[in-house]
Design a protein that fits this description.
The protein is an alpha+beta fold. It has 12 helices and 17 strands. Strand 11 and strand 12 (279-282) form a beta hairpin. The radius of gyration is 25 Å and the shape is elongated.
Length: 439
């Protein structure tokens, strides 16, 4: 969250006397209206109120404190950074959308979108503040995403968490992933998690050794890990062959060994579109046709290998899905998955043939919440995979290695996951989700 704090004349004089780094770190305690300040925020500190030419002179971290009087609350302002020269507030006002210009005239917390636009405007005016704001954003509960390295890290973290959830494992560990620096080098998500990675000498059973062979060891960035829960084991690998600027996105391949079933989820980013950028949508790019053709070939190969449906019934035996996900400018802390829409390959192609669906206001193709009438969310998709309602049937292992190569040769990074062990029944999973209660 982002907030604006307008200094009183006395506060301006107090701040003007700061010289030592420890003073800027410790900051000061201001006073605000109780309802205007909640939680913690990146704060833009505005001076010059009396001169009628307000300036953003500091940026820092603000946290609501104790009550002060009947309607007031203290505001702890720390980690201050002086902006030299200060940026006139009217300059920022000119750079944000009309509907969010109100933000430059208030004192207190801003809406999520207004705050993002204001920070974008500030870093556009002063590029040297990007790193400062990123560090402050991380402290206030999220990670500022300004680089391609972090964009891919967020998608890879999501695919890794999704793999854990599909396998019925606790995904909370991804909340401990250490985000790379904005200007740093690319690093796999698994390599940043606490605990020990799955080295070759730890993979003593046949299947996991085979998975290591599938993903190879020639990737520029490779990390793999083995998770265990009772008799079940989940092998996950993050595989990246190209630098971030040459990588088109993330693929997740999830293999259920006992079912010999797999699914492929390809990530596509939605951007904010429409009047005031109030909607989320994905406009097909030049690679989509090629990727859909590749998916179609995968599904045709699976159909040839498909076994008797009476042995393992599916609502959708096709493996290929696209997750259209929000391209947030801030990644939250914790283990939350990225919000988005899951659509089967066949569904995507069907929508593209309908003149009144997946169409933007100007007639162009647009996949978004407001143009696609039906889709799966994270919860529904996960449960259908866990319960075996979607995914291929039989002999998946004969084509998975080819799909791993196809993903990496297609300039995409890969999260590969394989679940080993006897499956829980749907009733057992339901009881586990309810905390062990019957019903």
């Amino acid at each position: 969250m982002v907030a604006i704090l307008r200094c009183t004349p006395d506060e301006e004089k107090f701040l003007a006397g700061f010289r030592r780094p420890t003073q800027f770190e410790a900051g000061w305690e201001s006073l605000g209206e109780r309802e205007a300040w909640k939680s913690s925020h990146v704060v833009l500190v505005v001076t010059g109120q009396d001169s009628h030419r307000p300036l953003v002179e500091y940026v820092g971290h603000a946290r609501s404190g104790r009550r002060a009087g009947t309607f007031g609350k203290t505001i702890e302002v720390t980690q201050l950074h002086r902006i030299e020269p200060p940026v006139p507030i009217e300059t920022l006002s000119d750079r944000v959308h009309l509907r969010h210009r109100y933000a430059t005239g208030v004192s207190g917390t801003l809406s999520k979108r207004a705050g993002e636009e204001l920070l974008d405007a500030l870093t556009t005016c002063r590029a040297d503040l990007a790193g400062v704001i990123a560090r402050l954003q991380e402290r206030t509960g999220g990670f500022r995403i300004l680089s391609r390295v972090r964009e891919l890290f967020v998608e890879e973290r999501d695919a890794t968490g999704l793999a854990l959830q599909l396998g019925g494992f606790d995904r909370s560990i991804i909340g401990e992933a250490l985000f790379p620096d904005e200007n740093g080098s690319r690093v796999p998500v698994l390599a940043t998690l606490p605990g020990h990675p799955a080295h070759e000498d730890h993979l003593v059973f046949h299947d996991a050794q085979r998975f290591s062979d599938w993903v190879g060891s020639d990737a520029e960035h490779l990390a793999k890990r083995l998770f265990q829960k009772g008799d079940q084991k989940l092998f996950i690998a993050n595989v990246n062959r190209l630098p971030a600027e040459d990588t088109l996105g993330i693929d997740l391949i999830y293999h259920h060994v006992n079912r010999d079933s797999f699914i492929l989820v390809q990530y596509k980013k939605m951007q904010q579109v429409g009047a005031g950028r109030s909607e989320w949508g994905y406009r097909p790019d030049t690679d989509l046709d090629d990727q859909l053709e590749r998916m179609r070939q995968v599904e045709e190969a699976c159909t040839r290998l498909d076994q008797d449906p009476l042995l393992d019934y599916r609502l959708a035996p096709q493996p290929c899905w696209i997750k259209f996900c929000k391209s947030e400018q801030t990644a939250p802390r914790g283990d939350a998955l990225i919000g988005g829409m899951y659509l089967a390959r066949e569904h995507v192609e069907w929508l593209r043939q309908q003149p009144d669906l997946a169409t933007g206001p100007r007639g162009g193709e647009l996949f978004g919440y407001h143009t696609v009438p039906r889709y799966f969310d994270n919860t529904t998709f996960t449960q259908l995979v866990q319960d075996g309602w979607i995914g291929t049937r039989g002999k998946a292992s004969e084509i998975i290695r080819d799909q791993i190569e196809a993903s990496l040769n297609g300039s995409r990074s890969l999260v590969f996951a394989a679940l080993i062990g006897d499956d829980m029944t749907q009733a057992e999973r339901t009881r586990e989700r309810r905390g062990g209660s019957a019903g």
